[in-house]
Design a protein that fits this description.
CATH topology of the largest domain: Rossmann fold
Helix content: 40-55%
Strand order of the largest sheet: 3-6-9-1-10
CATH class of the largest domain: Alpha Beta
Number of domains: 2
Distance between the termini: 31 Å
Number of strands: 13
Radius of gyration: 21 Å
Strand content: 15-25%
CATH architecture of the largest domain: 3-Layer(aba) Sandwich
Structural class: alpha/beta
Largest sheet: 5 strands, parallel
Length: 325
């Protein structure tokens, strides 16, 4: 029992320390910062969506500075090829004749920033699938394991549609969270001006979390008990995203396809981290409800009528949560 209490306290302290360190450079996005850290500890990938200039790339770079992990950035463009990110087999001339060696690409890192992921062609986007799901890439018929921990933080701009390629449903489902980056409040904008007016890259941040620490925190989170009531709520929330399994009017009217069971797995994993970050060694039904939007908003798909009527996924999730109490 004492070990559990100590583990919870240590987890919470580290979580708050990392959050505070990132917020030295990322102003007005506290909820997003905590959600990104939650996904990283849970071992998931994150899709950050927002208009230009709201700090998506700055957020990921701040995490790269705070986490003592190998970091790489991939700027996605329409001419980017799969081998540009996974790596390729090189032919070297030696005295013994030609030798084939594998040259790793930028995916061979622990923290990968996939910047403007929707600007790459589907062929290149699909190259991320195996890496995000299996932690490995296959080149020339040989499978190469990626380092642990490994996670992708991807950004996309929902405004500019010209020259972009919509992420397919199969790839969206590989992201644990989809987070919407919104415009900060007036006071936070003044703070952003103060921070960015400093010389250099702004306030100095320190390394606060190593790869070993991150894996230890993930192992602690995996041991957090999930009561049946919390598990039941997670399953019911997911099922209510399916038009043929719900009585929620908005779902029946606007949802084309419901979320997959992978959404429930993400709900449970992220709720465990959230409970520890709040100093508890058990998952509550409230933790499940709080994680519903980031875990599910990209896992069910709306019809054309929803777009015409201005109904988004978050509005539907709010109605589902009213039903699942």
């Amino acid at each position: 029992m004492n070990n559990d209490i100590q583990a919870v306290r240590s987890f919470k302290d580290i979580f708050e320390t990392v959050t505070a360190e990132v917020e030295k450079q990322v102003v007005g996005q506290r909820g997003v910062v905590r959600h990104v850290l939650t996904a990283i500890i849970a071992g998931g990938n994150v899709l950050l969506e927002g208009a230009p200039g709201l700090g998506k790339t700055v957020l990921v770079k701040a995490f790269a500075r705070v986490l003592d992990l190998p970091f790489s950035r991939i700027q996605f463009t329409p001419d980017l090829m799969p081998s540009d990110i996974t790596g390729t087999v090189m032919v070297n001339r030696t005295e013994r004749g030609p030798e084939f060696t594998f040259q790793p690409g930028p995916l061979f890192s622990s923290l990968v920033l996939a910047d403007e992921i929707n600007r790459a062609t589907p062929k290149t986007q699909s190259a991320l699938l195996e890496a995000m799901q299996e932690g490995a890439v296959t080149v020339g018929g040989v499978t190469y394991r990626l380092p642990e921990p490994f996670f992708v933080l991807a950004t996309q701009n929902p405004i500019e549609m010209e020259g972009t390629y919509r992420l397919p449903e199969a790839q969206l489902d590989r992201f644990m969270f989809k987070l919407d980056i919104r415009l900060p409040g007036e006071g936070d904008i003044h703070r952003i001006i103060d921070v960015t007016s400093l010389a250099g890259d702004g306030p100095r941040v320190e390394k606060r979390l190593s790869g070993e620490d991150l894996l230890n925190m993930k192992a602690v989170a995996a041991q957090v008990p999930v009561p049946f009531t919390a598990r039941e709520r997670a399953v019911r929330i997911m099922l209510h995203t399916h038009p043929d399994r719900t009585a929620v009017p908005l779902v029946k009217e606007y949802v084309r396809c419901g979320a997959s069971p992978r959404g429930v797995q993400s709900l449970i994993a992220s709720a465990r981290v959230l409970a520890l970050a709040r100093g508890r060694f058990n998952v509550s039904a409230g933790d499940i409800a709080e994680m519903a939007a980031p875990c599910l908003r990209h896992r069910f798909f709306l019809n054309f009528r929803a777009a015409a009527d201005g109904v988004d996924a978050d509005a539907i999730i709010r109605e589902i949560l009213k039903k699942v109490i």
